[in-house]
């Protein structure tokens, strides 16, 4: 297909597609004349992933390029490619202070992971952006007067594990390893608002059950 | 306590506290002289909440003011104050297009809520920002080539409900209704990065279990 059709089918304006091509986020098309190139289904798929990362996930261009590079790194096995790509996604603010709250948060998170028997997470703690994000979040809670203990975090970790199982079950429906890797990155980002909105809807439902006037359940 | 001590105990610079006072996010102190005011524990608590909303939750000043106004609205009962305050929090991008994907997403979400028997969520669907956020996220997934059916969303809804139960259990530890309301708003925002990081950590753990070389679990 030509650029115009790629734009129509993806819903991405041609100027934006040209920008992604210049930035190396999308591989060049197959040149058919001095001024025209031909694109295929793989381009369309990649364009959708780039759009998911940048427009929905608000991933910066440089991080998006890192994610895509990891997906194509033939020197890594499937599991490592997936891990490297997800690690390149943004993970919120980096830890700022190594104060008492940060040290206590690290001890709490380490005790949580040990209690869960998450051996992989413990082994890669020092390098993992998700581990740093968790320590930062727990330290912030404590600084703001909401300290949380291992037992407070445990139900969130259990839900996290159920979500991960659901995520990987969804991803395994895609047949080729390449499509699975793309789906893993896209669904990690795109299911975040699904999850956060369902939590808020469920909060209102549960709050109504506990404290409501009962009128809506009559 | 004086402004300097409020700043020291909260970790918020005095210039920022003065800004919050001017913007009406923090009630004025008790004036003790022409140039000095006295603050109490309630000011410290409110300041922590404002900081959680603005610095961690990236809630805009105007939304923060709406949240705080709802918390103090004596005309509402506890459950309604909580709902109004959480509704005033940001909920991601508003739906942009009412295209086929959006209409299909609405049908999917409605079928999900009906299947779960979430009567409150169904009744308030038209007004709920979390419902709109969910429809927008499902429509985006579909436009990007990842359509999701009711059965795909069900495990995320189940996790959402478990999280809501954990959230309300945490909140109920606070004794006074006012402290519970503040905690509900703060913990809704502050536990989002906890949850998202635990999901990513669990993904790596589960991916390693399914596809890993086994080396880290030997």
**Spans of chain A of 5+ residues with little confidence (pLDDT < 50)?**
none
**Largest protein-protein interface:** A-B, 83 and 82 residues
Q: What's the rounded overall pLDDT mean of chain A?
A: 87
Strand order of the largest sheet of chain A: 1-2
Main structural class of chain A: mainly alpha
E-strand count of chain A: 2
Number of helices of chain A: 10
Please give the largest β-sheet of chain A.
Answer: 2 strands, antiparallel
Q: What is the share of helical residues of chain A? A: 55-70%
**What best-fitting shape of chain A do the alpha-carbon axes yield?**
elongated
Oligomer: homodimer
What is Rg of chain A? 21 Å
Number of domains of chain A: 2
β-strand percent of chain A reads: under 5%
First CA to last CA of chain A: what distance?
57 Å
Q: Can you write the helix and strand succession of chain A as a string? A: HHEEHHHHHHHH
Description:
Chains A, B: This is Transcriptional regulator. Chains A, B: Residues 1-70 form the HTH merR-type domain. Chains A, B: GO terms for molecular function: DNA binding; DNA-binding transcription factor activity. By secondary structure, chain A is mainly alpha-helical. Chain A has 2 domains: 3-88, Orthogonal Bundle (Multidrug-efflux Transporter Regulator, Chain: A, Domain 2); 100-209, no CATH class. Helix content of chain A is 68%, strand content 2%. Chain A is built from 10 helices and 2 strands; from the N terminus they run ααββαααααααα. The first copy, chain A, has helices at residues 3-10, 14-22, 41-56, 61-71, 78-87, 100-116, 119-123, 129-143, 150-171, 177-211, and strands at 30-31, 37-38. Chain A has a two-stranded antiparallel sheet with strand order 1-2. Chain A is elongated and about 65 Å long. The model of chain A has no long low-confidence stretch (mean pLDDT 87). Chains A and B meet through helix 3, helix 5, helix 7, helix 8 and helix 9 of A and helix 3, helix 5, helix 7, helix 8 and helix 9 of B.
